[in-house]
Amino acid sequence: MNPYTSTVINEPGVMNYKDYKVEDFLLDEAFIAWAKKADGDAFWQAFFQEHPTQKAIATQAKNMVVLAQEQIDQQQKERLKSRILHDLEPEQSNQEEPRSLYRTMAYWPAAAVVLLLVVGLAWFFAVRPSKLFGPATHQVYQDLVKQAEVPLVEVYNAEEQPKLVVLSDQSSVLLQKGSRLSYPKSFDGLARRELYLSGEAFFEVAKNPEKPFFVYANELVTKVLGTSFTVKAYENDKKVVVMVKTGKVTVYANKETRIKTTATANRSTDGVVLTPNQQIYYNRSDAQLLKALIQKPALQDLGSAQFLSFEFDDAPLSKVLQLLEQAYGVDIVYDEELLASCKLTASLADEPLFEKIKLICLSIDAEYEIIDAQIVLSSKGCM
């Protein structure tokens, strides 16, 4: 069995180290604490025996921790500084001056490298990657999983093809390559259905009004009752994206790391509500939420939309726009009184939504823009 596609059980507070890289170990407090010890540890010995390929990676990370710990010692830094300054000082004797200069030039590069290593490692462990490279996404995922109140199943997809995960309530998750998902084996006895995502996945959620469904993905929380939607929350991306295909979801910033009380979990007044063909961007740099339409809005309620021809012959523009709103589930804002006399004769059957809007604008000399997931038309009216 491929260990990178296997399903494992994580007890609360225990991380899945088998996929760790050097930087992941350096961000793990439990690993750092172990690396600083002089003696061994039964857990790590057993882990290396089960995952021998990780031993070299962990050893490299451990050596960096030990080196940083040793070099950051204040007395050693002072001694190193004194030694460098001493080598740079000219000798008192004129006879020894050429030799002193030669010795200084010879030893200075090595001393400079050591000093830079000391300062660099100290700065790395003091500042941490969250300040160097932005939010430590993998660490956010780890922290969320650690706070889980029940044991979690974790699935990691290392394959090229999406991996289908079926939950105990028959909800399904299509997990993309390089993504991981943690969730309870069963939702029985739980007030909420809570999942934790790092990467990208498409969710189809079974309806259960008594047990809301939450997806924690980096700094965003998505709450649904029964719908289908996509979440993109890759480790190094600057944005987290939620896109709705069917139903309705509520998205809000995860300021408290995770929802702690049932009262908080059941509230629906906070956050931004998304409906089909809408998406939200969360800019991780400034913690801002931006609501928008997806790039290619799809027809909604195909049972009735398939009978729509989108063939118009001298049709009132207001009727055309109302039809588009119904077919795509979007809001189109315009001045009804100003456009009351506008008529449209056109064939829009094979055009995607935004092409339909462009053709309409050309016919009535109008312009459009997307504001807060709404299509806003601007026109001087029709003669």
From TrEMBL:
<dbReference type="Pfam" id="PF16344">
    <property type="entry name" value="FecR_C"/>
</dbReference>
<dbReference type="GO" id="GO:0016989">
    <property type="term" value="F:sigma factor antagonist activity"/>
</dbReference>
<dbReference type="Pfam" id="PF04773">
    <property type="entry name" value="FecR"/>
</dbReference>
<keyword id="KW-0614">Plasmid</keyword>
<dbReference type="InterPro" id="IPR006860">
    <property type="entry name" value="FecR"/>
</dbReference>
<feature type="domain" description="Protein FecR C-terminal">
    <location>
        <begin position="310"/>
        <end position="376"/>
    </location>
</feature>
<keyword id="KW-0472">Membrane</keyword>
<feature type="domain" description="FecR protein">
    <location>
        <begin position="164"/>
        <end position="249"/>
    </location>
</feature>
<feature type="transmembrane region" description="Helical">
    <location>
        <begin position="106"/>
        <end position="126"/>
    </location>
</feature>
<keyword id="KW-1133">Transmembrane helix</keyword>
<keyword id="KW-0812">Transmembrane</keyword>
<protein>
    <submittedName>
        <fullName>Anti-FecI sigma factor, FecR</fullName>
    </submittedName>
</protein>
<dbReference type="InterPro" id="IPR032508">
    <property type="entry name" value="FecR_C"/>
</dbReference>
<dbReference type="InterPro" id="IPR012373">
    <property type="entry name" value="Ferrdict_sens_TM"/>
</dbReference>
